[in-house]
Amino acid sequence: MGTPSDKRKAADLSPLEEIAKNYRQALVDIKTLEAYAADLRKRLIARMGKAEVGKINGVVAFTYAKTDSYAWAKFATEHGDIADRYKVEVTKVELDKDKLLAEHGGLLEEFRTRQFLSKL
């Protein structure tokens, strides 16, 4: 959990040890519930087949209808010969981040993002 030469500011979370333990368990529980929900969703979709509406006791409970979106990458993988004929070059304008950091690093510090990671 860091080395003696670690210069980052540290907070003593010892009084929150129980909260940290519960946090770790909650992350495990979330993964378990997400897997369970994904399995239930898969079973519902399989039962619906090609239907766009699923009813329970005559009441609409689920819909599984087509949208205006397409799985373009999957199409290009499966039909590369056709996709190649429709490729276009796109020019993209973006920030020169390295130059901006070099010239205005101090100004950018307030925009630096933070990420919370568990090291336990």
What is the overall number of helices?
Answer: 4
Distance between the termini: 8 Å
Main beta sheet: 2 strands, antiparallel
Radius of gyration, Cα only, in angstroms? Answer: 25 Å
Largest sheet: spatial strand order: 1-2
Mean pLDDT: 92
Q: How many individual β-strands? A: 2
Going by helix content, strand content and strand pairing, the class is mainly alpha
Q: How much helical structure, as a percent, in the residues?
A: 40-55%
Query: Uncertain runs with pLDDT below 50, 5 residues or more?
Result: none
**Total domain units:** 1
What does the overall shape look like?
flat
Topology order in helix (H) and strand (E) letters: HEEHHH
Fraction in beta strands? 5-15%
Main features:
120 residues, mainly alpha
Fold and architecture overview:
- By secondary structure, the protein is mainly alpha-helical.
- It has one domain.
- The protein has 4 helices and 2 strands.
- It has helices spanning 17-48, 72-78, 80-84, 97-108, and strands at 53-56, 59-63.
- A two-stranded antiparallel ribbon has the order 1-2.
- The mean pLDDT is 92.
